[in-house]
Amino acid sequence: MLQLNFIRENREQVLQGLKVRNYDTAALSIIDEIIALDNERKKTQLGLDTIKNESNQLSKEIGVLMKQGKKEEADTQRARVNDLKEDTKNLEGQLDQAEKSLESLLLQLPNIPHISVPKGKSEADNEVFKAWSQQLPELGENALPHWELAKKYNLFDLELGVKITGSGFPLYRGKGARLQRALINFFLDEATNAGYEEIQPPHLVNEASARATGQLPDKEGQMYHATKDDLYLIPTAEVPVTNIYRDVILEERDFPIKLTAYTPCFRREAGSYGAHVRGLNRVHQFDKIEIVRIEHPEKSYEALNEMLDHVSGLLEKLELPYRILRLCGGDLGFTSALTFDFEVFSAAQKRWLEVSSVSNFETYQTNRLKLRFREGKKCFGTHFERKCFSVGKNCSLAA
RNA sequence: GGAGAAGUGGCAGAGCGGUUGAAUGCAUCGGUCUUGAAAACCGACGUACUCGAAAGGGUAUCGGGGGUUCGAAUCCCUCCUUCUCCGCCA
To answer: Among A337, A329, A367, A352, which Cα is nearest to A399's?
Structure first.
């Protein structure tokens, strides 16, 4: 989420950013609504603090009077404090109300796009940032899609997944399982070589963690929920990994923080069916390797470029034809300031498939996480980038 | 699952109803001293919100939430976590 003070001090910039995300004037009024509500909140806060100060003062006096044995005077003071109590309760209610409404408005506000983000409505308007210069691979007439190949070579078995669990839970076997494991190892090893610390996080998280990374409340329906213990299966390693830094204050010398993690990811994917989700294109459980960096705000875009190079290097080593897109305002994720998608060409499906995306979230994620760093005496929001690399969800088996 | 003990600032560790945002020690930062360092000494040292141009105030915070009280780190309820013992263990 954006910080209130940032919105107050950079109203124009925020409005400009929302326009890149295709907000109309009616939607833009949310900014002024927030500022007005915050003014209200401050007023209530001040009133409450004043009353509390008064009753704290009186209570102290009562203590002194009691010690001196002046019981009657103490009793009159006591009555006065009791009168103040009612006002306190009212104001507390108001303050609570205002804070809740403010928070829910702030949560509706997306991140402000980076200046380089092109305007646009949909994925069709994404900018090709780096094109594939060589010839695209072609397959012969009787080339098989990956789900046919899988059957032929016994690489994975979707029916068995259905039998054991349900649709969308692939079962890999033989060479398929081995390839999957090899890819995971490859990505992790490459990340380690590039200086990322490997993390093996829990695969279930509590509500506080899901809330801190924004899965709750908006994506509640997309997560598997173990209700008996009130835990959620992670939809991405981002959730447990970034929660390492929930409520943390870093020192400047802690930068850069570079983490990598492989986890299976669980998503209910409610409401997506059809031909485009055929095979492994969209499943409820898939494997993903994530790399995460937490950086000083001044260095975050430099770090983003490094991550871009890192991913490019991986695809080059795998000898896959790929391209990089810079997402336009309409396609940019809610929490991201700048996102590059990596797409690999599937010769069998004859289309580009997203395999990875690299984003800079600036302080949007860290604000919600309450992750800050200390510079001098002040604490600042720190920048947060991440890139994820899906295995199995992509077309590498078919390419 | 049952029985018991405990959770205080970066760490260690006092306090167990009133002037305690919290003694003391360590760590950290700034300074004096020193050729340099160490030692010694002096000073600073959480976070969030808020008032103020600033200086400087105010409010909250002693695992989380709720309650009793004029007043709670201290009393009560509840949840969480950790430790010890017993039970269970695909």
So the answer is: A352
Q: Does residue A396 lie within any of the structural domains?
A: no
In the three-class reduction of DSSP (H, G, I as helix; E, B as strand; rest coil), residue A332 is classed as coil
A70-85: per-residue pLDDT in tens?
888 888 888 888 888 8
Residue A104, class by beta-carbon neighbours within 10 Å (0-12 exposed, 13-18 middle, 19+ buried)? exposed
Residue A343, strand partner residues: A323, A354
> Would A116 be classed as within a structural domain?
no
Kindly list the distances between the CA atom of residue A62 and the CA atoms of A47, A53, A57, A162, A205, in Å, as whole numbers in the listed order. Answer: 23, 14, 9, 72, 48
Global pTM value: 0.86
- The owner of tokens 């995306």 is A357
Amino acid (one-letter) located at A344:
V
Verify if strand B has an atom below 7 Å from the CB of A116: no
Find and give the residue nearest to B49, measured CA to C1': A45
Residue with CA nearest to B60's C1' atom: A49
Give the nucleotide at minimum CA-to-C1' distance from A247: B47
Protein CA at A229 to nucleotide C1' at B2, angstroms: 20
Question: Which value does ipTM take for this structure?
Answer: 0.84
Closest residue by Cα to residue A238 from A365, A345, A142, A133: A365
Residues A102 and A185 in one domain: no
